[in-house]
Write a structure and sequence with these properties.
198 residues; alpha/beta; Rossmann fold; five-stranded parallel beta sheet; 5 strands
């Protein structure tokens, strides 16, 4: 199973590009599952979203815990399931939720989670300048606790320190150009995997 991870700063276009990736593989006749965390279809995801819309340390902790539970639920349901074969599993938001936690806790948790949870060659960090991120986020109706310039700047810096083995994609260009860059990498990785399987 191809496991694709799309992560990045708020407003970087994670869901937009994840959905385009889903369309790419569905058009090739593949069975694709897409999960965007936190999800609306379960208690953990709903509670994480509720906490993200709140304020203060308690909501910060609740958001992190419920988010993690939602991600783990998705893994249990869809990753490496023999009884429900999937060709491609796409996760929008996965390991980099830890970048919203204070250091050194965030770095330590990332190392632990990247060791015990499934990872893949197909890991993309969608990068965007905090000012552009904030501009995009200002067009939304609801605003989460981290959607301010100071938090976006800190979170981006912490995330970039964690993603040295990820594909880092600048998303300040057009959606089409960014998606072409992502799809070229996906095609190269798919070729490598096919050659490896031979």
């Amino acid at each position: 199973m191809r496991f694709i991870i799309i992560d990045g700063l708020d407003g970087a276009g994670k869901d937009t590009h994840a959905r385009l990736i889903v369309e790419k593989y569905v058009s090739q006749g593949e069975r694709v599952i897409f999960r965007s965390h936190p999800e609306n279809d379960n208690h953990y995801g709903l509670k994480a979203k509720e906490a993200l819309l709140g304020e203060g340390k308690i909501n910060h902790i609740k958001a992190a815990l419920y988010y993690a539970a939602d991600v783990i639920r998705s893994l249990r349901l869809y990753h490496d399931k023999d009884d429900a074969p999937i060709d491609t599993l796409v996760f929008s938001r996965y390991l980099l939720g830890v970048a919203y936690l204070p250091n050194p806790l965030g770095k330590t948790l990332y190392k632990i989670l990247a060791t015990i949870l499934p990872t893949t060659r197909y890991m993309f960090f969608l990068d965007v300048e905090p000012e552009e991120s904030l501009r995009r986020l200002s067009q939304r109706d609801e605003h989460e606790m981290f959607e301010n310039l100071e938090d976006l700047t800190k979170t981006r810096q912490k995330a970039l320190e964690l993603v040295d083995d990820w594909y880092i994609i600048n998303t300040c260009g057009s959606i089409e150009n960014v998606q072409n860059t992502i799809e070229n990498i996906l095609d190269d990785l798919d070729k490598i995997n096919k050659n490896y399987e031979k």
